[in-house]
Design goal:
By secondary structure, this protein is an all-alpha fold. The chain is built from four helices and two strands, in the order H-H-H-E-E-H. Helix 1 (2-37) packs antiparallel against helix 2 and helix 3 (80-115) runs antiparallel to helix 4. The longest helix has 36 residues, at 2-37. The chain starts with a helix and ends in a 20-residue tail after the last helix.
Length: 174
């Protein structure tokens, strides 16, 4: 099951990377259009709506691989058992946050699909409901990843970086 999650997360990450490359092209065209032709193409609406979607497509892989940014000033001094406890608490908090995002945004996502919600005026109107859907779907998927990590931490099998190590200054399990 973990391999399947890795493949899904990697695919989402590749989609986000391709989307980011497309945004770079859009920004370049927008800058050239404004600079040389005084033409407003509406790239800012696309970028504004794309950034949250790109982030929520990349976060699952970062969480799954344990590569989210963390401050280890005290974590490095904990033994293996306490590292699992700290990780379990952080996984539980992450689950609660993602559930909150999913529940809090669900109605707006449904309403967006029902009314065909768009953002922008004039030259370019960008649909918002696909971005809302990506955020909600990713939040649900991230909740699943956090749950799996939580279960592994609860039984002492957390394999995220740092959970098993006894880095500098860390005490061996007592």
């Amino acid at each position: 099951m973990f391999r399947a999650l890795e493949r899904i997360c990697s695919a989402l990450n590749y989609i986000a990377a391709a989307w980011l490359m497309l945004l770079a092209v859009i920004i370049f065209v927008e800058v050239i259009g404004r600079g040389f032709f005084s033409a407003f193409l509406g790239g800012d609406e696309i970028v504004t709506n794309s950034v949250p979607a790109i982030v929520f497509l990349q976060v699952p892989l970062a969480i799954l691989t344990g590569s989210m940014l963390r401050t280890t000033i005290t974590y490095d001094h904990l033994n293996k058992r306490w590292r699992h406890v700290v990780n379990a608490i952080s996984y539980l908090m992450g689950m609660m946050l993602m559930i909150g995002i999913a529940v809090g945004g669900w109605t707006d996502m449904i309403n967006g699909w029902e009314i065909g919600e768009y953002q922008g005026i004039g030259a370019l109107e960008v649909p918002v409901y696909p971005v809302r859907t990506i955020i909600i779907a990713s939040a649900i998927f991230i909740t699943l990843i956090y749950f799996i990590h939580l279960m592994r931490a609860a039984v002492g099998k957390d394999m995220t970086p740092g959970a098993q190590a006894t880095g500098s200054g860390a005490m061996e399990e007592i």
